């Protein structure tokens, strides 16, 4: 058949061969990455625009592998596919909690750290238990930890809402990440109490110079606030974007304030904001 012929052709295309080899390499390298200590976590500040206060950090995974630096957008999907995401995700959460505990010991003000959690981890029925164990081990109060999930997690509402309830009982916060990029946005937030709505960079990028995009963004911000959620606008890079967004009294995150940095460097950026 025609379609089978096309598949055969695709199977032997050099690009596909390359990408499947690359995937195999990444899969193999991922098996050793944790024991070899190849991962690190970087932290990006979240700034309350009206006050200029740093109110949190997002934890972002970095992998310095034998293959060189590999971006999360490339290795996270592979880790999800091969199952490594479970141990990696646990490691990131523990690492973020250890950082919080270390900052507390240094006498820093209490702050929240957000950790990205993959849809695959959200299908793990023991996920909430694992979270509770890591909080207990690291002695971090649950209220300082926020779990970031994407809308895609909420498509299977029955499976995920039980876990959401368990997490809320533990006391961790819940953020919907990349809001505005999916097709089920409203369903995702209709049935669960979320603490934070994170609006995707792509929505913000179109705003300057487009009244229609601005109207949509303003309405989403209002929606988040009406639901009692904090609103974080992601990917702010310019002073123009920051000035505009400040009028909407949201929290901003982006290169304008800081790139994601190792814990000690992130703390120095935080100090800079504390001095202001
Ligand atoms: P995300 O959760 O939406 O994270 C925001 C991404 O935008 C990060 O990319 C961050 O470095 C980048 N970013 C922040 N500010 C700006 C800006 O002003 N301009 C631009 N162009 N980019 C900005 P990163 O670190 O490469 O992570 C990419 C994605 O990989 C994340 O998107 C998240 O989906 C995933 N990821 C990262 N760390 C983890 C993790 O520990 N676990 C899981 N499951 N996923 C992770
Ligand atoms: Ca995120
Ligand atoms: Ca995001
Ligand atoms: Ca994203």
From TrEMBL:
EAL domain location, by residue? Answer: 23-274
**Residue ranges the record marks as coiled coil:** none
Instruction: Report what the protein is called.
Output: GGDEF-domain containing protein
Organism, by scientific name, is Planococcus plakortidis
